[in-house]
Amino acid sequence: MNARNSYPSLLDPDESDGSGGDSSGQQGHRIIPGELDLSHKVILYLDDINVSFDGFKALNNLCLTIDAGELRCIIGPNGAGKTTMMDVITGKTRPDSGTAFFGQSIDLTRLSEPEIAHAGIGRKFQKPTIFEQHSVFENLELAMKTDKRVWRSLFACLRDEQRDRITATLRQIRLDAQADRPAGLLSHGQKQWLEIGMLLVQEPQLLLLDEPVAGMTDDETMRTAELFVSLAGKHSLVVVEHDMAFVGQLGGLVTVLHEGSVLTEGPLSVVQEDPRVIEVYLGR
Amino acid sequence: MHKPLTLRFLTALDGKSWLALGLFLAVTLVAVPLLHLYVAPESAFHVSAYAITLFGKIMCYAIVAVAMDLIWGYGGILSLGHGLFFALGGYAFGMYLMRQIGRDGSYQSDLPDFMVFLDWKELPWYWSGSDSLWWVALLVVVVPALVAFVFGYFAFRSRIKGVYFSIITQALTYAAMLLFFRNETGFGGNNGFTDFKRVFGYTITSPDTRLTLFGLTALLLALTLVFARWLVTSKFGRVLTAIRDAESRVMFIGYDPLWYKLFVWTLSAILCGIAGALYVPQVGIINPSEMSTANSIEIAIWVAVGGRGTLIGPVIGAFVVNLAKSWFTVSFPEYWLFFLGLLFIVVTLLLPQGLVGLWKKLAVKPGATR
Amino acid sequence: MTRYLFAFLLYACCASAHAALDAQQVRRLAAEDSSDKVAAIEQLTQTADPDAVRVLKAMADDSLFLAGDRVVIVDGEQAFDAATGRAIALPENPESITVNNRIRGELDGALAALKLFDTDAGVRLASAQKLQSQVSPAMAPLLGRALEKEGDGRIKVLLTLAYAQSRLGDADPAVRLAAVKALAETSSPTIRSVLLRLTEKASEPDDKVRYEAVAALQSIDGRLALAENLARVFSGLSLGSILLLGALGLAITYGVMGVINMAHGELLMVGAYSAYAMQSVFRAYFPAAVDWYLPAAIPVAFFAAALVGVLMERTVIRWLYGRTLETLLATWGLSLVLIQSARVVFGAQNVEVSNPSWMSGGVELLPNLILPWNRIVIVGFALFVLLLVWVLMNKTRLGMFVRAVTQNRRMAGCVGVPTARIDTLAFALGAGIAGLGGLALSQISNVGPDMGQGYIVDSFMVVVLGGVGQLAGAVWAALGLGIFSKLLEGWAGAVIAKIAILVFIIVFIQKRPQGIFALKGRSVE
């Protein structure tokens, strides 16, 4: 599962490795710096990631591989390192050692948060962190995938297709009636959905979702599960959750983290029976 | 539909606001000059030179207040050293005014009086070109912008925020003030620049010159308000307020807060610099006490009294506080500081939205379910 | 050995002639011309005779008279022959021998020189020290003799320097050269200026002597510079200890409540004015014990400032919890109110607060290095306060609560720590310490209504640099900043030093935004 891949040299576009999925056949493919390269079907490599905070080891030789289009769930007890792992992927925390690659060529340990977001990784936080003073519409407008530099923003004008996109998303997250309401006035569940909506309009390739259904009703939880399942394939999703029912609804492989490294991986049914998992997390 | 830029400018303000602005310009550009020049001094309608200078000065402060609102009200950056940029612009223009004195100073020399007094034989290199209005105009914009840019770049890049940032801006203006107090710095030491004779070739104390400066200031204030309103209603403005409310979240969406903050910070400094340049010929003096920390902190209270994040609030605040200051220092000088201090306390405790916020609350209460 | 023998013989000869001084020499003391008197004094001095001391002392006391052709000492009702020392009848109309300032100066020098032969080492030492600045070439033989006789090491060194000085005017260049070489060991600024003259061709024709003088000057300058730097380090230490007292309070309140109190400088002012008040009280009611106003002022300063702090916290600051930027503004308003109140109550002018007598003066380590007592006491006081605070924070329950609230307010509240009360107490403590800082400040600086303003920026820099939550940070930052800025001041002047410090802090914050010592663990944004 955790195969260590050798990464093709950035400077040698003609290096052939024979992996499939590429129409150019036997020859190697060009690697364009900055562009997501999914030629090996893997969208996220984490290899031997170590993170300590003043002596406390949060991540301990963590290895994780996510395939493109996959829907992966991460479970584990508190303190297992789930949020820290997300911090490393999104650039908030630099690992002490180890490699983290987005696709074949984008080194996550060298980019800043905005750059990583721009590269195609979107994150949803545990606590909904939307912009309370802005309206629902504006929240989506801000998150939308577009040129986000200062000069562009000064003269930016919402194009028709962008406006339609936002409206469509509003409908998808069932907040079309609340479009002009300040986001701070939404209910908790609605805020969670708004944040998911913001994630969608960002059009990321990889979605990182940290406890997306915390505080949601059962109905909302089910709708969220449906949404995520529909997204898988075109997008890749990594979902951190405690709600086992929700995890079950998602399907997909489950990775169990414990004390900073991977304890085991597999389908939920198998993982749930694993005695080690039961001992550290699920309980008897 | 892509709106052309001019249309966007025009729609920045709503109808009522354009009307108010027009009224303001009519009063300052037409009514005041008439009342000053053609109405007898004894009449109640006469506008005295004192009033013109006072209001001209306050309008300069109003521009600074708007600049401060941009970074604080909309950007969440509280600067306690913004007086520095105001003073830098003032000093830059002051150099030009000193050169305009020509040989009419006490020592009848080409050099400004204070340089003769220090026994300097020629102008320092950084004074070169100061007799050219265009060069000085450039300096008025560039010097505050450069200082702001460099300082802001390093400060924002290291993600200094909140209180720490405010303190560091305070230290910055304090250090600059100490620097300008020295005679060797070449800006008049603790006396600064004064005794101006001419500006643009016209006598500085003549009514026409006074009115022209007054009018220019009013125009600039109006332009600043329109421009600021356009800025905050654009996408840039929305990103800026998002940065104010949740900076790290904004980063995860893909915006780099550094450049947004730096842009508005530098813009704000430029506005202050221009306001300072218009202030100096009207008031007739500039010295290092303009860079004092107390002055810079007062700017914040103008904005707080008027109402943060409203643009017009800070203008109102600047007028209210400075008129009060004028009145107090004439009638009850010992009480001014008590009043100012209590104003700081009361406004932050009880009026967090300022006067504009109070007005809005009162306007909404009777009747309407908005 | 033979040298000593010879000297002893010489002395023995003189001793045997002890019975009387040369009457002619003594007679010349009463000469009309001052220069003759001076010459006589010099000659008498050369004899190194204890009797000469007696005569010269009498002359200095205005009890030397001329009776006929004899010089007599009149002491009240008794009279003595000056030359022999024998008692004689009181003369009829003795003519007093006038002593003008110049002669008095000569007498002083002569008496000091003669004291070099006193049996008491203490007297000799004092005299040798006094002589350092009063050396004339004529004294050379006398000094030489004293040097030969001298056994005490310390006095020998001083005598060597004095002797060398007296030889600087000798005709023989070799003698001058040797004298200059000997003088290279001094740290005295006066000798330095003497040597400085010798480097000029006009005063010193011989090349070798000039070069030697230059070399000697370099050696002296090096030693002087060291002393100057030590003085600066000490000055920095004293500044640092005041910064520490000022910033410690700020660090505590900022750590606990996240509040930067712009009125903190005014708490210092309250402490300083407490000192003034106590001084006035003591002067009015306990004038005899006025030196003890300072210890009495310690609790007054602490509690007065603490009270003001509590008032600030209760009326304003607690209502702004969480809104740090507004707290800056509101506390600035408080500061204005406090300053104006001080103006109204105490007047806008600075008031005079003087050091108690046991804090005046200083300790002299080197000729140009004097450590003032008042600063030494302040450093000691600051360390004492620091120790008390450390004990309070680390060994008491209150301290534990304060630290808990600093690190995680919500959690502390959940486990039952009364956070509101802790806030007030911590604020009071921080304010009280600031008051003590103001008390210390009153001893070395001006006391006026806006004295606190000058220390706010510095205190803030200490807090920013030192980080929050740990005392150690504030200590290192305060001392470091104090010493660093004093050293820098010596090089580049006060203004450049301040600017450099500011730039340094901005750069430092880039690399380490949490300060020198930050709280451990995952920081909450």
How do the strands and helices of this protein lay out in sequence?
The complex is a heterotrimer of chains A (284), B (370) and C (525).
Chain A: E1 42-53, E2 56-67, E3 71-75, H1 82-90, E4 97-102, E5 106-107, H2 113-119, E6 121-124, H3 136-143, H4 150-155, H5 160-172, H6 188-201, E7 206-210, H7 218-231, E8 236-240, H8 244-250, E9 253-258, E10 261-267, H9 268-273, H10 275-282
Helix pairs in contact in A: 3-6, 5-6, 7-8
Chain B: H1 5-12, H2 15-37, H3 49-73, H4 83-101, H5 113-117, H6 133-157, H7 162-181, E1 193-194, E2 198-199, E3 202-203, H8 207-233, H9 235-245, H10 247-253, H11 257-283, E4 285-286, H12 293-306, H13 312-331, H14 333-350, H15 354-364
Antiparallel strand pairs in B: 1-4, 2-3
Helix pairs in contact in B: 1-8, 2-8, 3-8, 3-11, 3-12, 3-13, 4-6, 4-11, 6-11, 8-11, 9-10, 12-13, 12-15, 13-14
Chain C: H1 2-16, H2 23-28, H3 34-47, H4 50-60, E1 64-67, E2 70-75, E3 78-81, E4 87-88, E5 95-96, H5 101-115, H6 121-131, H7 140-149, H8 153-167, H9 173-183, H10 189-198, H11 207-257, H12 264-285, H13 293-315, H14 324-346, E6 362-366, E7 369-372, H15 373-395, H16 397-407, H17 409-414, H18 419-444, H19 453-466, H20 471-492, H21 494-511
Antiparallel strand pairs in C: 1-2, 1-5, 2-3, 3-4, 6-7
Helix pairs in contact in C: 3-5, 4-5, 5-6, 6-8, 7-8, 8-9, 9-11, 10-11, 11-15, 11-18, 11-19, 11-20, 12-13, 12-18, 13-18, 15-16, 15-18, 16-18, 19-20, 20-21
